[in-house]
Specification:
- The chain is an alpha+beta fold.
- It has one domain (10-115): HIT-like (HIT family, subunit A).
- The protein has helices at 10-15, 55-61, 64-81; strands spanning 23-26, 30-34, 42-48, 92-95, 111-115.
- Strand 1 (23-26) and strand 2 form a beta hairpin.
- Bound molecules: guanosine-5'-monophosphate.
- The site of guanosine-5'-monophosphate (5GP) has 13 residues, from strand 2.
């Protein structure tokens, strides 16, 4: 399956330094920064530097090095922001929206790291 990547998306511009961001963590293959419209006291976005549209694309085509780097970066962000469960952290939720059903707004793969308060049920029950 082909994935069409739009290099004019907002996160591509952030990666190129065309738009500022509040960086939380930089690694060889990943970048983490604060969400511009936070939905919780901690709301950080973790993105790969590579041109991947969504999690499915990343899982299918990223290198092992990129996947390991990204996964470790997410763990590090949880520790740094104090939302890693246990050890004093209160826990968190990780969200990766994709496509229409997932209501993904920015077509560059990203994981939301949310925490700092009790986040409530995962989704409202279907009516
Ligand atoms: P999505 O719905 O695609 O999973 O989430 C996209 C997220 O990107 C939203 O939470 C939105 O607030 C955030 N966002 C959109 N534009 C910008 C921006 O220019 N800078 C930052 N830091 N976050 C952004």
């Amino acid at each position: 399956m082909g994935y069409a990547y739009d290099d004019q998306n907002i996160f591509a511009k952030i990666l190129r330094g065309e738009i500022p961001n509040k960086t939380v963590l930089e690694t060889e293959h990943s970048l983490a920064f604060e969400d511009i419209q936070p939905l919780a006291p901690t709301h950080v976005l973790v993105i790969p530097r590579g041109a991947y549209v969504n999690y499915d694309h990343f899982a299918a085509e990223a290198s092992d090095a990129e996947i390991v780097d990204f996964t470790r970066a997410v763990g590090e962000v949880c520790r740094q922001t104090g939302v890693a469960p246990g050890g004093g952290g209160g826990g968190h939720r990780l969200i990766a929206n994709a496509g229409e059903a997932g209501v993904q707004e920015v077509p560059h793969m990203h994981l939301h790291v949310l925490g700092g308060r009790v986040l409530g049920r995962m989704l409202p029950k279907a009516g």
